[in-house]
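Dear H.,

Thanks for agreeing to be a second pair of eyes. The structure we're designing against is below in token form, covering all 252 positions.
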């Protein structure tokens, strides 16, 4: 039985005052969280501040990105996996579509980062997903396969015991347009079947989150699908009440 997992991606939002207010709200409601793993992923500059503001062990901390280089060194502006570990990060979001689209991250860079995160003892949240054009031109499955194959080819299927996958259709991120539960389930089932072709047991245990305009009013139906194991939440994770409501919708 997979335990659902909900993670909040704060993206480049916040200030110390904003985060203190948000985390105070999360602290107050954290005792309501049962049967779901929960993480929040602040901007890296605020990871330490956020961690110190949390008064609960129930909510873990993750990062939104990290350097591809496995070791510290002369990489101005970058932050390493070991630094994230040192700050107490349990997770790191890798290959988010904004990183792929805005910063040109390739499948092979994402794969390298997954390897580096695993080596550092951090669980990658590997984001995959298609654009609207790719969906409409019928190449959705091959795009998602390529994104997964790059990682599988480097780290191998056995390593997916320690990988979370987030299926995020690009057209649903931050747009207010959600994939229907059936559309999302179809892709989640495709991803699990693909992994199952390599190792049935690992495929059955991999947590696959859905991300893309998840809100308190649509979370339950999405998370109720057989292959959807929680969500990666952007906008709604910036509101404590909404985020907790979404986490509770994933509870088993
Ligand atoms: C995301 O950024 O991963 C995301 C899913 O954003 P939103 O929930 O705002 O669509």
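And this is the sequence the design step returned. I haven't edited it by hand at all.
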């Amino acid at each position: 039985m997979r335990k659902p997992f909900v993670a909040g991606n704060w993206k480049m939002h916040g200030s110390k005052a904003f985060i203190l207010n948000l985390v105070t709200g999360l602290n107050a409601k954290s005792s309501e969280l049962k049967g779901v793993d929960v993480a929040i992923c602040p901007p890296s500059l605020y990871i330490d501040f956020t961690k110190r503001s949390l008064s609960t062990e129930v909510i873990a901390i993750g990062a939104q990105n990290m350097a591809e280089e496995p070791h510290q060194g002369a990489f101005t502006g970058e932050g390493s996996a070991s630094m994230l570990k040192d700050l107490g990060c349990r997770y790191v979001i890798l290959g988010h579509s904004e990183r792929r689209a805005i910063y040109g991250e390739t499948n092979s860079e994402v794969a390298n980062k997954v390897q580096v995160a695993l080596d550092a003892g951090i669980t990658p949240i590997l984001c995959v997903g298609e654009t609207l054009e790719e969906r409409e031109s019928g190449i959705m499955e091959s795009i998602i396969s390529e994104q997964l194959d790059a990682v599988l080819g480097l780290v191998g299927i056995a390593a997916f015991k320690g990988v979370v996958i987030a299926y995020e259709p690009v057209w649903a991120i931050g747009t207010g347009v959600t994939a229907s539960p059936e559309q999302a389930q179809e892709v989640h089932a495709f991803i699990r079947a693909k992994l199952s072709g390599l190792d049935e047991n690992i495929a059955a245990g991999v947590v696959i989150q859905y991300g893309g305009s998840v809100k308190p009013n649509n979370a339950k139906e999405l998370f109720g699908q057989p292959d959807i194991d929680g969500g990666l939440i952007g906008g709604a994770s910036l509101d404590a009440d909404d985020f907790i409501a979404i986490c509770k919708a994933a509870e088993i």
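Two observations from my side: The CA atoms of residues 143 and 152 lie 14 Å apart. Residues 9, 168, 173-174, 211-214, 232-236 surround phosphoenolpyruvate (CB under 6 Å).

Warmly,
E.
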